[in-house]
Structures are given as C-alpha cells and as structure tokens.
Design brief:
The protein is an alpha/beta fold and 438 residues long. The chain has 3 domains: 6-124, Response regulator (Rossmann fold, 3-Layer(aba) Sandwich); 127-258, Rossmann fold (3-Layer(aba) Sandwich), CATH 3.40.50.2300; 270-437, Alpha-Beta Plaits. Helix content is 45%, strand content 21%. α7 packs parallel to α8 (187-197), α12 packs across α13 (310-327) and α13 (310-327) packs antiparallel against α14. It starts with 5 loop residues before the first strand and ends in a 5-residue tail after the last strand.
C-alpha cells in the first residue's frame, strides 16, 4: 500500500465492514483500512497515525461493547462517523458528547450509502472556507467549533464590516453564517451587501437569530439568505442545514462544469471559450494585454476513424488534448471547439512561432496507444496575432491561416497577416513552418 491518506473503518461484522469500505472507496475515492476489533484499530492507528483522515466506527465491538473505540480515535483528533445497530436517546446523547461528525443507524443499504456520501463531504470540507459573523465571541466560537468537527476551514468576524473586508480578501469563501443583531450593521444589510457581489449559486448565506419575530425569516431570505436558523437550535439541525447548502453549491458547480467542459477530452468547450475569451479581448482592447488566437486541427482524422474505428479516434482526441494541455502556459485558454478542432488563446505571447512549433512537435512525438495499436498523429495550426475588431474576427483569421497550413502540406503552423481593410479570404502568410524547416 502507498503512504497516502486513508479512511479507517472498524466493524466486527465482516459483511458490514466490507460493504461500508467498498462504498467509501467508490464514492469518496480514498483507500480504506479495515479492522474488526478495538485491538486491530489500535494497531492501525499506531501504523498509520496522521495519515488516517477519517474513521467510521461501530459503537459495539466484541472487545469494546460500550463504544470505547470512539474516544480512542477522537483523542487523535480524527473526525469520526459512528455506526450503531440500536439507537436510543441515551446512546444519541453519549455519541454526540464525543463531538463526532454524525451517527448512523445500521438498518438498510440507504444508510450505508449515506455514510459514503458523508465521508466524501467531510474529506472535501478540508478545502472549504466558512465565515462565521457574530459580535458575541462565545456564540461565534461555538459555531466555529461545530464547523471544525466537520473539517471546515473556519474564519471568524466580530462584525459585519469586518466580514465584508474578509470576503473581499478571500473570495473563495463558500459559506457565510451571520447573526442578525450586530452593532455596526445588522444581518439584513450585511446580506444585501454580500449579494451585491456574490450570487446565491456561488456563495451560500445562512442567517441566525434569537429574535422571536418570525417575520425576520422571510425578510432575511428575501434579502438574499439561502437559509435561516432560529436560536437555540440542535447541533444536528445546524449540520443538516450547512451540509445541504454545501451540497447544493457543489451540485450547481458540477452543472456549470458539465456545461462548460468537453465530455470526451475534459478540456473547456466552445461555450466556455467564447465566454472567457471575450473578457480577455476587452482587456486587450484597453491595452492591458496582447492576444494570440490559434486554431489547431488533427490531420487526416477521418482516416483514423475509417481505418481503426471511432474508439481509436476518441483515444487520439484525448491523447492530443492531453499533450496540448501539458504544454499550455498559465493564463492561456485551450478548448475543443468541435470535431478534431481545438482553439488556443494565448496571453502576451512573445514568440508565437516558438510556442506553436512546440505544440506541433509534442503532438507529432506523442504516440496514441489504443491497446491494439500504436500510431502517431500530426496537427496543422493557424495563428492570428494581430489585434482585430473582435475575438470572432481573430478566430476567423486564425481559421483562414489553418486553411493555408492544411493546403500547404499539413503538420505545420502558419501565422497570418491581415490588412485591416482586407477580407479574410485575402489572408497572407507572414510566417510558415513545416517539420523540415526546424
């Protein structure tokens, strides 16, 4: 086994142990260590130490019938999900006193699926920032402690104005939990100001108040809160609300990613390209940067599909995409715009000839491995580095240069020169390179 992170699962039932472990490895994508007793759990803790990042523990083991395994693991500050075959109010209170992530009543497959989902959430939370806003230090600290049990990165603010400063400095905060009654600015105004800059789909806000006026709930929701909690509340309700809001944000992000990502290659798609390239083009118009737009096309791609099949063609597309992605500089854009065609938008490219010769060469030298065959492909590249009236015009000019490269023998790059008043069809060759020229 490698020395990476692990989830520890402890259950004296082999069937349950294997089922929970398999679900976690599938859904949380983290290897699992398995133990069937307190003694085996101790041995795993000694061997793996801090590399155990989460534990799922049966409350009743043969050598630990009263839940002794829970404080053993919690003493190492490892987050714990408890499994129990029976559940009473006394057991619930006992488990929650140990500051566990959650407890799960082992009844059916749905509960095991929940354990795997919760494990995935806890492991992901380590990269999630939550801002807690309350002028009362004790209550703010209480919420922060609850959130840290679920492995969130917690940032605290003693007032609304401080919270706005923190949000401006740390735009990757995903959730704000804010009290209503604060001396410098109430929660309603804070939420309104947050929504001036952050949409509900990217930053969640949960309002909190001990006010008895129930009209406050719709007021905060209409101001832009995603959710609302009345004080006092149970820790379990708090966790459910937080988790539901974070799950919703992740789901919306997944939808955005799917809408802007090419399903085959994992590159950005045409929609993403145009949305982000337009912003770069506007910055170029203001003189903040220079743009270079290139169109790249796999040579004789139809022959691959016809002779080796579409599966081989798909592998070729993924191989080329990975090769291009590895050569991309930070700040540049790469997208698959359709079929076997790609687009690169380069920012402040000082030497486009050198850059695209590197692209051409790496594709030519990278083998396409299908399992049944190994072959090489080449690409032709058309480049526009002159500022034109729009991104569309630059892309069309690059496409015209690509046409020249294709008809000039393929496996080459062409940098086009355009007169500002000339039609695109009058594209001339400023620079051209084929393999033998290098």
């Amino acid at each position: 086994m490698d020395g990476g992170e692990r989830v520890l699962v402890v259950d004296d039932s082999k069937a349950m142990l294997d089922l929970v472990a398999a679900n976690i490895e599938e859904h949380a994508a983290t290897p699992v260590l398995k133990a069937r007793s307190l003694a085996e759990a101790r041995a795993m803790l000694r061997e793996w130490g801090k590399r155990i990042v989460l534990a799922v523990l049966d409350l009743n083991l043969g050598d630990a019938p009263d839940g002794e395994v829970v404080p053993l693991v919690r003493a190492r500050r490892i987050p714990v999900i408890v499994l129990t075959g029976s559940l009473s109010e006394a057991i619930r209170e006992k488990v929650l006193r140990e500051n566990v992530v959650d407890y799960v009543h082992k009844r059916n497959a749905n509960e095991i699926a929940y354990v795997a989902s919760l494990a995935r959430r806890i492991l992901a939370n380590r990269e999630r920032k939550v801002l807690v806003v309350d002028d009362t230090a004790s209550f703010r600290g209480y919420l922060a402690r609850l959130l840290r049990v679920h492995c969130y990165q917690v940032i605290e603010a003693g007032g609304a104005r401080e919270a706005l400063e923190i949000l401006a400095a740390q735009p990757d905060i995903r959730l704000v939990i804010t009290d209503y009654n604060m001396p410098d600015m109430d929660g309603l105004e804070l939420i309104r100001r947050i929504r001036d800059r952050h949409s509900r789909n990217r930053l969640a806000v949960i309002g909190v108040s001990g006010e008895s006026d129930h009209r406050l709930t719709p007021r905060m929701l209409k101001a832009g809160a995603n959710d609302f909690l009345h004080k006092p509340f149970e820790a379990e309700e708090f966790y459910c609300r937080v988790t539901q809001n974070m799950d919703t944000l992740d789901y919306l992000q997944h939808i955005r990613d799917a809408a802007q990502t090419d399903f085959l290659t994992g590159l950005h798609n045409r929609a993403y390209l145009f949305e982000h390239a337009e912003g770069l083009f506007r910055n170029a118009e203001r003189g903040h940067l220079s743009l270079t737009v290139a169109m790249l096309d796999i040579d004789h791609f139809k022959r691959i599909n016809d002779s080796l099949g579409h599966a081989a063609g798909d592998i070729a597309l993924k191989t080329v995409a990975n090769a291009l992605r590895d050569e991309l500089r930070g700040g540049d854009l790469l997208a698959r715009v359709g079929g076997e065609e790609f687009c690169v938008v380069g920012v402040n490219v000082e030497d486009p000839a050198r850059m695209f010769e590197r692209f051409r060469r790496v594709v030519e030298e990278t083998p396409v491995e299908t399992g049944e065959a190994s072959f090489h492909v080449t690409i032709s590249i058309g480049v526009c580095q002159q500022p034109l009236e729009s991104f569309d015009a630059m892309m069309a000019a690059a496409d015209a240069a690509l046409y020249v490269a294709k008809h000039g023998g393929r496996n080459r790059w062409v940098i086009a020169e355009l007169e500002s008043t000339a039609p695109l069809a009058a594209c001339g060759v400023l620079a051209e390179a084929a393999p033998q020229d290098t």
